[in-house]
Amino acid sequence: MKNDRQLKIIEIIGKYDVETQEALLEKLKEEGYDVTQATVSRDIKELDIIKMSTKNAGYKYSVKKGEDERPSAKYANILREATQSVVSAGNLVIIRTYSGMANASAAAIDLMWHYAILGSIAGDDTIFVATSDEDSAKALTKRIDDVLLHRND
């Protein structure tokens, strides 16, 4: 439940310019999550979510992007738990997940390697990730494989 809720938070702040915890709480409730402001506050802290300025002089929540290539433990864990296989084909990376886990995995991949991805589409158990070229797709596939190799760490 907590992982699902936190993934939904990441999805919401990726889709909308959420300025306050109250607005985030409302979006979560619209999505069927019955949570308190205190829970949302803890999730924001655990996910290392920050407020950043927007073009219209306001602020919005955003996931803090790291300086290095190492994926955060939380996102890596999501991939390890959900992913069955990953392959590249041309400039696409195709990820197979357990049923119902593709959206969570796609959110984690988008956040971990946002700079390498042109776009992604997730169904129920499959994710298609578009990169700029074949070499980028192979590199992203290797990064995901590296995360998956550490399933039992």
Report on the structure:
- This protein has 153 residues and is of the alpha+beta class.
- It is 46% helix and 21% strand.
- A four-stranded antiparallel β-sheet has the order 3-4-6-5. A two-stranded antiparallel ribbon has the order 1-2.
- The longest helix has 16 residues, at 134-149.
- The protein is globular and about 45 Å long.
- The mean pLDDT is 85.
Features:
153 residues, alpha+beta, 4-stranded antiparallel sheet, two-stranded antiparallel sheet, 6 helices, globular
Q: State which percent range the strand residues make up.
A: 15-25%
Average pLDDT confidence is 85
Reported for the largest beta sheet, the result is: 4 strands, antiparallel
| Class derived from helix and strand content | alpha+beta
Q: Which stretches are low in confidence, meaning pLDDT under 50 for 5 or more residues running? A: none
Q: How helical, in percent, are the residues?
A: 40-55%
Number of strands: 6
Order of helices and strands: HHHEEHEEHEEH
What coarse outline follows from CA principal-axis ratios?
A: globular
The count of helical stretches stands at: 6
Rounded to the nearest angstrom, the distance between the terminal CA atoms is 23 Å
Rounded to the nearest angstrom, the radius of gyration is: 16 Å
Strand order across the largest sheet:
3-4-6-5
